[in-house]
Amino acid sequence: MFTPKVLLVNDDAASLLALASLLDMDGSGYKVMTARSGEEALRHVLNNDFAVILLDVSMPGMDGFETAEAIHSHPRSASVPIIFITAHYADEMNRLKAYQKGAVDYLFTPIIPQILQTKVSVFVELARNNLQLQRQKLELEKLNRDLQEQRKQDLDHINERRQAEEALRQSQEELRELASYQERIKEDERKRIAREIHDELGQNLLALRIDIAMLHARTGSTHPKLNKKVHAVLEHIDSTMKAMRAIINNLRPTVLDLGLNAAIEWQVKEFQRRTGIACELVMPEAEVVVDDNRATALFRILQESLNNVFRHARATRTRIELHKTGDRLLMSVADNGVGIFPGCRRKANSFGLVGIKERISNLGGELSIETAPESGTALTISVPLPPAEINGAAKRLDGEGSVPVIMDRRASDNLKKAAASPKRPLAARRGKPLPVDTPHE
Fold it and tell me: Which end of the chain is more exposed for a tag (fewer CB within 10 A), N or C?
């Protein structure tokens, strides 16, 4: 603990002892040191820090004025307060000289003890406060250096984290682009395989069926046993052609060539036929025209959403809506099932929603999910439309002179119109699906 020091300088031993006994009391809070000459006082000053120096003016050799000047000339003791004490030099000239030498006070003997003790206590307290301030200054400087170092480390960490986040963002973007590219390649490969199966295998099976049918017709009366075998072969060919059409539809439904409306209606009809879940389909009367990438992506999203309803929702009804709002295309799939329970989205090996989100992200769209236990689930997909498609849709509406109205209708109506149109492909007109029942409340 720091103990302030007080230096008493006087060549008279009796006076020095009297001053020391006056100041060196229990509980004073400081230590009193003495010197019998100016030279001894300077030696003490070189080795110690003093709160105040009580200096006698009249001393042999180096008097008090010279001692004060020497003390204040040294950097270590330049600011030490000095109180002159004298019994002889009481005139104003000596008082002025003392103040010029750096004195803070000039006292005459006899000294009143309380006044001297109070003055010394004030300087001791100032010394203690100065030391505390110096320590606080050093601590603040150290703290400031530590903060600067910590700030530098934090900035380095922030830069490293920013670089890591940028690298992660770039990696995620590259992975998303790769996933999109792989999806396009997969769809193109499905389309190519489906086309080759249709063109090569389909034509060969059709030619084979024609030949077998002719053979069947000619052997009906002349070769009954052969005719029976030929009939079995025809049935096998028909089964093979049916399986071939199923494979083609699984790869890429040909109904996609009829447009998005027809593809959605076909998919809903197939889902209802396969699962027995009642479906309600709401679409605009006008054809929703989008590019092939968007049409394929929306078809796959609907396909995956309906599969999720069948596998997880335990629903009895599903409502599918498709309509345009401004420059966006909205599609929603809602069911009356059990909903999505917390944690189900993170289930291992469950990538249905992940795949849907990736497809929507690749289209620059948004996905919202509204669900609650035992209250069903509603998936809403919002996809932006390119300006060319928006302008094209506006021109078509201007030419027709009417705005499409969203309404409930039988899903087969649009396919019947598409099949009757001479602009539709022949294969699409032949594959007209059955109606989808549209339950009403």
Answer: N
Q: Which two tokens stand for residue 56?
A: 């006698």
Contact 3, 30 (CB under 8 A): yes
In residues, how long is the chain? 441
Angle among Cα 258, 263, 264 to the nearest 5 degrees reads: 145
AA letter at 227: N
How do 406-408 and 278-284 pair as beta strands? antiparallel
CA–CA gap between residue 260 and residue 301 (Å, rounded): 12
Q: What's the mean per-residue pLDDT of the chain?
A: 80
pLDDT per position as a tens digit, 96-107: 888 888 888 888
Give the pLDDT of residue 421. 38
Tell me phi and psi for residue 84, to 5 degrees.
-85, 140
**What average pLDDT does this structure show over 357-366?**
84
Class of residue 50 by CB neighbours under 10 A (exposed 0-12, middle 13-18, buried 19+): buried
Q: Convert the pLDDT of each residue in 378-418 to its tens digit.
A: 999 999 987 755 555 544 444 443 333 333 333 334 433 43
Per-residue pLDDT band at 249 (split at 50, 70, 90): confident
Contacts 24+ apart (CB under 8 A), 414-421: 414/261, 414/262, 414/265, 414/283, 414/287, 415/255, 415/258, 415/262, 415/265, 415/266, 418/258, 418/259, 418/262
CA dist., res. 28 & res. 124, Å (int): 10
Whole-angstrom distance, CA of residue 272 vs CA of residue 304: 14
Q: Percent of the chain scored above 70 by pLDDT?
A: 84
Question: Cα 358–364–367 angle (5° rounding)?
Answer: 60
